[in-house]
Amino acid sequence: MSTPSPSVRPRSRLLAAFAATALLATAACGGSDSSSKSAGTQELALAIQGTPPSLEITQLNGGQSAYIWSALYDTLLYTDNQGRIQPNAAESHTYSEDRRTLTLKLRKGMTFSSGAPVDAAAVKASLERILRTPGPNQSAMAAVEAVEAPDAGTVVIELERPDGALLGNLSFLNGVIADPATMTGPAAAADPVGSGPYTLDKGATVTGSTYVLKKREDYWNAAAYPFETVKVRVMADRSAVTNALQAGELNAGSVDFTQLQPLKAKGMQITSVEATAVASLVLADRGGETAGPLGDLRVRKAINMAFDRAKLAETFLRGSGRPTAQVFSPKGGGAHDPQLDETYPHDIAAAKKLLAEAGHPDGFSVTMPSLAITKMFEPTIAQSLADIGVKVNWTPVPPQQQAAALSSKKYPMYFMIDGLAGDAASTVVFFTPRNQRNPFASTDPELAKLIDEANKAADPAAAAEAYRKVNKFAVDNAWFAPVFYIGSTWVTAEGVRYLGDGSSTYSQIRAFGTGG
């Protein structure tokens, strides 16, 4: 068995931790409408790094476990390989002029794996269950006021306010369709009755280790799924993934950038995605509620100038990722602006000057949570901040308490790795009050106006311009101190293709095709 050298270990631990804990979708997705089945490739054998917490629709995870549940459940819409939202179970959708009513027309003839019809009543029941049940995806339904099913083929979603992220959400976690007769039953978490192209082979599945999916030939869009069987193995050790690919036990897996040579030598295909996640210091207490210094823009700017982003990216990522000063994805949207990455050069003297001007010539102390995903970064983060006079005190937080701790307002700033998403979804997570990366409910009239413009925009170009302004506001006002984008490298054997390029960041089974 090959073992990574000591210099490679930080990268391996980073990606293993990231895959298990990232809160947003983390890998490129979308289907290729042109992929065709090649002879002899009947099974996709894929490795993921985290065990699905549940297959029940209100508790679904947006990380790599989505490769499993996206095969079991249909979604109303889907995001293709170019990051475009496409029809799926809903063959069309239209907004009212005020963008507060969304009408979806469903395809005819769809069924659950049980044979029951997938109709508007089932969609309404699924949406309402997610809307009313506490879980990781409930907050994305905050703008939904009511769901109606006026006939078997029509679903109407009424909104309290326009929501630019709604269509993207309906193409992933919030758009899944479950069987109303069984969605609350005892089997929902481990063996659900789904609406998707595959069913779980319980006899071959070992929960937490191996998930075997069998194709439904009666599925309405079976031609879009070329594999008769999908076998998903949970493998936290990335060296083990490399070894399994070499041995032919897997034909698809994400591996360390530093472990490619033996796989290339075997003739495997390598697909590199520049950015699937962003690592950043969340400067959450922007009003100085618990940490007074953070309420001063000069302090937040100084913190941004404390990081040598290029050096950190090279040290931790070793070629798989790049430095950044922004939290929006560099592909698949209009918010990203390359010029913003030049806003905060690494400048210790200038940072100290800003702190002195803000009334903190000797710096200040701050308490940050020590999380499973941050431990390997903590010495470097602490030293970078200490260089400008900011002393970090770390408090251990168990994984099961992480979400509650970060939303408690106990920690004015913290380090986090988040999977990249589309512009609208990123705006919700990072900038709307009381959301995942805005626990202190920071707000600003200018920012609120820009978000409102984006939500109301019917024209994609107008929405992109508004999101670009949101991004600029965030960088100029130092709401975060982003450090680098984390990329991924996918390896596939002959007959299997990885179709993602970073334009879409959802983990979906349609990220894989045949041929090549």
Would you kindly provide a written description of the structure presented here, covering whatever features stand out?
This protein has 2 domains: 9-268 and 493-514, Periplasmic binding protein-like II (D-Maltodextrin-Binding Protein, domain 2, 3-Layer(aba) Sandwich), CATH 3.40.190; 275-487, Dipeptide-binding Protein, Domain 3 (Dipeptide-binding Protein, domain 3), CATH 3.10.105. It contains 14 helices and 19 strands. The relative contact order is 0.19. The strands form 6 sheets. Strands 11, 12, 13, 16 and 17 form a 5-stranded antiparallel sheet that branches. Strands 1-10-9-8 form a 4-stranded mixed sheet, covered by helices on one side. It has helices at residues 9-21, 66-72, 120-132, 166-170, 238-247, 261-265, 297-305, 309-317, 348-357, 378-386, 402-406, 423-431, 445-456, 460-476; strands at residues 43-48, 77-79, 85-87, 90-95, 101-106, 144-151, 154-159, 198-200, 210-215, 229-234, 252-254, 269-282, 321-323, 364-370, 390-396, 414-419, 480-492, 496-498, 512-514. It is α+β, with helices and mostly antiparallel strands and 516 residues long.
